[in-house]
Amino acid sequence: MKKKEECALVRELLPIYCDDAVGDEGKAVIEKHLKECKECSTYKEEIAKMKEEEEASQDKMEAVKTEQVTKVSKKLRRHKKKVDLISTVAVVFVSLAFMISFQVVEVSGISMEPSFQDGERLLMNRVVYHLRSPKKGDVVSVAQEDMTLLKRVVGVPGDTIEIKDNAVFINGKSVKIKGEEGRIEPGDLIYPLTLGKDEYFVMGDNVEVSLDSRSSSVGVIERDEIRTKFLCRFFSFKK
Questions:
Q1: Do both 126 and 31 map to the same domain?
Q2: What whole-number distance in Å separates Cα of residue 103 and Cα of residue 126?
Q3: Does 156 share its domain with 217?
Q4: Are residues 20 and 135 both part of a single domain?
Q5: Does the N terminus or the C terminus of the chain have fewer Cβ atoms within 10 A?
């Protein structure tokens, strides 16, 4: 085989030789030729250098990819921490807002029947009366010394209250009391009774048994004694 043809054949085999993919016999022939042919030996070095550069480039690309993945992973972890923190703050805020704004009370006794039953749990609004005054018909909790009452607002400041002939009169007009059943006793107050500034008259819906503003032991209610307003039924242990 002429040298030129041998060089051409060796150069074709050099790429796979550099990949160590040539058999022992072929490898021996190529190495013998490289020792004798400076041009092919130089060509082999060029191929080896190109492969090294290619491998270095691939390693660099892998390093860049790894760095990018690491950065993205760190960003995702930071984002998750922020989301977790925001979620925790939101839960705490909502919980505090609920505790500040609302109160759960349990109905004790039958003074508000049939509207509310003994044992029912009610959700009460703590903040509404910081925004507006109590209105007629509002069901409210009233704090008096060592007891808290659940009653309905019947009279507001400026109203003149009178209870006679088994009826409630406000400003001279007979009014229907929600849930009214049975006889309406006037209690031990002196009528007619005109409510002053920040004074309210409250009654229980079960008018025959309710201890309310008709009795001097409860009497006219001051604005600051009215704490919360009924919002909705929470749930009930009893029916």
A1: no
A2: 7
A3: yes
A4: no
A5: C
pLDDT category at 2 given cuts 50, 70, 90 is: low
Residues 6+ apart with CB under 8 A from 131: none
Residue 10 makes CB contacts below 8 A (sequence gap 6+) with: 30, 33, 34, 37, 40
| Cβ contact 6:39 at 8 Å | no
What's the pLDDT tens digit per position in 55-69?
777 877 887 788 787
Give the residue carrying structure tokens 């190109």.
Answer: 50
Query: How do beta strands 173-175 and 120-125 pair?
Result: unpaired
Residue 87 lies in a domain: no
Digit-coded pLDDT (tens) for 3-45: 777 777 777 777 777 777 778 777 787 778 778 788 878 877 8
Going by the DSSP 8-state scheme, the letter that residue 176 receives in this structure is: P
Average pLDDT score over residue span 60-89: 83
Task: Return left, alpha or beta for 198; rule: phi > 0 is left, psi -120 to 50 is alpha, else beta.
Answer: left
